[in-house]
């Protein structure tokens, strides 16, 4: 076991003889066609019980007995680096204009500079930086330049972890996003759309599709895999506006009678958050269902019309997935590589990719700054909610590692060194947060991935183009 993993423990609290000596971390509420995992409750116990149980599972747990999790959040087109980069050193750094929304959560976040994604560079393959930036973001591999079916890349860090430790949860990993992208054909200077549309790869030629519809993510998380509902049944339930909580209410009542006052309050708050998400999804479905669309256009079932609302709801799905231990590994694409989405809510009508090629035009630079800040605002909101979600004696964020970044530094010049990288969460007590961490120029981004995989309990010596573990995550 590595020095990092020595600070983590394996095992889960179990229920002994059916009595309330300890509720299993894997306990669920079940109903017809529904399975609902539970958040961390005090009766699930702590590290002393975890040490005594199921050590052979090999799952990385924190000293409190809570599971360790990690997420990778991809943002397209890089940033305006001049407005992104903070000044100062260590914990005494000064927030940049773009990163100001992080001020309220700065104690939970590290800003890491000097990171490089060499395999996003041309390396003899000519143009196509956006395709390579998304393809290599989590793989650290050079994508074969092709627009045909002979794509070749490599396994991504999330799927590497899922292959080793993903079996401990209902979903080995969760892939979500806010733009679908095309699955085939040419999307960027001779590169397949598969490279542009995906950051998660199971192997060298198998991207892992992402879900962009919050309703489908919710269905995936709470549907009973042994009683899969037909589409008609799901639609009837939506029309009845029946909550997933209604299906598990009998199990829920029995559980509440066995819980202490603190756990009952926590369970009630958790159920309230689920109902709120359901209301938001239902509202979106109502809003989109009556919209006039061109002939043969599929009617959206749960995708918010506003970008910020969509991103926030997907972040909330990710929080819920971690809170219920449905998965411990996730990827989230805010947008596809080279996204040219506009932002009506920011009064920005031009496309993001178009604006990123601003050639120092002051008006375009200002719009890019606003888009960059918008993505940071959404991330800060998510981090705040993760920090507020209690787990054991700490928070959900304390037991998580969340990377936010892009495979391009500055979209105007398409460079792939000094990437904009944020790292949130304490990693179960193995990461010191609240700092700017300046790495030497050309430090492989995959060095950070090796360090994260190590903390997750994976057997890893190297990954992608790594040159060792990342130094400086602890002081």
What is this entry, summarized?
The chain has about 475 residues and is of the alpha/beta class.
Tell me about this structure.
With 475 residues, the chain is α/β, with parallel strands linked by helices. It has a domain at 66-229 and 304-455: 3-Layer(aba) Sandwich (Alkaline Phosphatase, subunit A). It is 33% helix and 13% strand. The protein has helices at residues 47-52, 81-84, 129-137, 157-165, 193-197, 214-222, 231-240, 244-247, 249-258, 261-289, 307-323, 352-356, 362-388, 445-455; strands spanning 28-31, 34-37, 69-74, 109-116, 174-177, 186-188, 191-192, 201-203, 206-207, 329-333, 390-391, 394-395, 400-405, 421-424, 436-444. It has a 7-stranded mixed β-sheet with strand order 5-10-3-13-14-4-15, sandwiched between helices. Strands 1-2 form a two-stranded antiparallel sheet. The protein has a two-stranded antiparallel sheet with strand order 6-7. The radius of gyration is 22 Å and the shape is globular. Residues 5-21, 47-56, 225-232 and 290-300 have low confidence and may be disordered.
Name some characteristics of this structure:
33% helix; 15 strands; two-stranded antiparallel ribbon; Alkaline Phosphatase, subunit A; 475 residues; seven-stranded mixed beta sheet; alpha/beta
Topology:
Elements: E1 28-31, E2 34-37, H1 47-52, E3 69-74, H2 81-84, E4 109-116, H3 129-137, H4 157-165, E5 174-177, E6 186-188, E7 191-192, H5 193-197, E8 201-203, E9 206-207, H6 214-222, H7 231-240, H8 244-247, H9 249-258, H10 261-289, H11 307-323, E10 329-333, H12 352-356, H13 362-388, E11 390-391, E12 394-395, E13 400-405, E14 421-424, E15 436-444, H14 445-455
Parallel strand pairs: 3-10, 3-13, 4-15, 5-10
Antiparallel strand pairs: 1-2, 4-14, 6-7, 8-9, 11-12, 13-14
Helix pairs in contact: 6-11, 10-11, 11-13
């Amino acid at each position: 076991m590595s020095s990092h993993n020595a600070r983590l423990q394996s095992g889960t609290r179990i229920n002994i003889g059916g009595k309330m000596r300890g509720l299993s971390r894997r306990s669920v509420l079940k109903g017809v066609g529904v399975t609902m995992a539970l958040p961390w409750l005090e009766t699930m116990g702590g590290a002393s019980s975890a040490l005594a149980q199921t050590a052979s599972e090999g799952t990385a747990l924190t000293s409190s007995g809570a599971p360790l999790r990690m997420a990778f959040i991809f943002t397209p087109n890089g940033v305006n680096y001049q407005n992104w980069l903070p000044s100062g050193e260590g914990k005494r750094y000064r927030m940049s204009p773009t990163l100001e929304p992080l001020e309220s959560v700065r104690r939970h976040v590290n800003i890491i500079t000097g990171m490089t994604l060499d395999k996003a560079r041309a390396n003899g393959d000519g143009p196509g930086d956006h395709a390579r930036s998304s393809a290599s973001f989590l793989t650290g591999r050079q994508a074969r330049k092709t627009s045909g079916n002979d794509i070749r890349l490599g396994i991504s860090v999330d799927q590497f972890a899922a292959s080793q430790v993903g079996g401990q949860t209902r979903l080995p990993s969760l892939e979500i996003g806010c733009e679908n992208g095309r699955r085939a054909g040419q999307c960027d200077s001779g590169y397949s759309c598969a490279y542009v549309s995906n950051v998660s790869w199971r192997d060298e030629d198998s991207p892992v599709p992402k879900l962009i519809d919050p309703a489908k993510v919710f269905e995936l998380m709470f549907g009973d895999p042994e009683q899969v509902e037909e589409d008609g049944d799901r639609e009837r339930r939506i029309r009845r506006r029946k909550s997933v909580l209604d299906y598990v209410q009998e199990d829920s009542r029995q559980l509440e009678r066995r819980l202490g006052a603190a756990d009952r309050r926590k369970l009630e708050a958790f159920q309230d958050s689920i109902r709120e998400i359901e209301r938001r999804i239902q509202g979106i479905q109502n809003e989109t269902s009556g919209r006039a669309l061109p002939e043969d256009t599929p009617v959206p079932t749960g995708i918010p019309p506003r970008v910020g609302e969509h991103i926030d709801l997907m972040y909330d799905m990710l929080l819920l997935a971690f809170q219920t231990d449905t998965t411990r590994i996730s990827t989230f694409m805010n947008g596809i590589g080279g996204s040219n989405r506009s932002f009506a809510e920011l009064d920005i009508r031009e496309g993001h990719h178009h604006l990123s090629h601003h050639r120092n035009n002051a008006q375009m630079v200002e719009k890019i700054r606003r888009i960059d800040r918008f993505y940071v605002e959404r991330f800060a909101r998510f981090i705040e909610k993760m920090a507020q979600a209690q787990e054991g004696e700490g928070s959900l964020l304390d037991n998580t590692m969340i990377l936010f970044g892009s495979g391009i530094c500055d979209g105007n010049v398409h460079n792939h060194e000094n990437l904009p990288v944020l790292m949130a969460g304490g990693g179960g007590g193995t990461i010191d947060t609240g700092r700017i961490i300046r790495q030497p120029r050309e430090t492989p981004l995959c060095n950070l991935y090796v360090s994260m995989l190590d903390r997750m309990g994976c057997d890893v010596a190297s990954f992608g183009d790594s040159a060792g573990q990342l130094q400086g995550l602890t002081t």
